[in-house]
Design goal:
Elements: H1 11-21, H2 37-48, H3 52-60
Domain CsbD-like: 6-57
Pfam families: CsbD
InterPro entries: CsbD, UPF0337_stress_rsp, YjbJ_sf
């Protein structure tokens, strides 16, 4: 997986959209640290069951 992913847009806005779409997500699930995009994707995939490719499109493209 590429470590050169850059979040699209404002992270706070993206967090809000993800929480609205996937109500089971917690603030801990959505904790983002620059350079740790792979860990974020892994947590989100585990909690939502959504494929990493779809999550990448939502967050990075």
């Amino acid at each position: 997986m590429s470590t050169k992913l850059k979040l699209k847009g404002n992270w706070n806005e993206l967090k809000g959209k993800l929480k609205a779409k996937y109500g089971e997500l917690t603030d801990d699930d959505l904790m983002y640290v620059e350079g740790q995009e792979d860990q974020l994707l892994g947590r989100l995939q585990k909690r939502t069951g959504v494929a990493q490719d779809e999550l990448k499109r939502m967050l990075f493209e």
